[in-house]
Amino acid sequence: MKKLLFIPLLLFALSSCGTANTSSNKILESSKDSSYGFTEKNPIKVGGIGSGPHNERNYLNSLTGPNGEKVSYERRGSCCEFKSHNSPFGMGLLDKYAVTYEGKNDTVTVYLNMYDKAQTMAPLGFKINK
């Protein structure tokens, strides 16, 4: 009986949207790689168990257009199953966001990986709000 209670509590704890410190996930520069963040094969890894959605919002809120324009974004769902040791189930999905800024004629799709961590950069054509 204890095991039956432990498993749901463990899953809840691992998937909760905490506000963990993400200082190891600092954005250093803008990428020169035109696929960085724009393809499912090269997503932006903002990861961290229990803090993934929070990290995604922090990351997106730190972006600006090339001249400091305010960025707006909208989540467009998930896709692209992949293996991850950082997911409670061993697999994850990427989150897709439509991103644009004032004066930009189109919207781009940015792929974020909320399970795995890597040094993050701004995608090509964007900058970081410092």
Walk me through what this model shows.
The structure is a single chain. The strands form 3 sheets. The chain has a 4-stranded mixed β-sheet, with helices on one face. It has a two-stranded parallel ribbon with strand order 1-7. Strands 3-8 form a two-stranded antiparallel sheet. It is of the alpha/beta class and 130 residues long. The chain is built from 2 helices and 8 strands, in the order αββαββββββ. Residues 1-27 have low confidence and may be disordered.
SS content category: alpha/beta
Major beta sheet summary: 4 strands, mixed
Percentage of residues assigned to helices: 10-25%
- Compute the number of strand runs: 8
Helix and strand sequence: HEEHEEEEEE
**What is the 3D shape?**
globular
- Spans of at least 5 consecutive residues whose pLDDT stays below 50 are 1-27
Put simply, the count of helices is: 2
Strand coverage percent: 25-35%
Q: Which sequence of strands runs across the widest sheet? A: 2-6-5-4
Spatial separation of the terminal alpha carbons = 51 Å
Computed over alpha carbons, the radius of gyration is: 16 Å
Oligomer: single chain
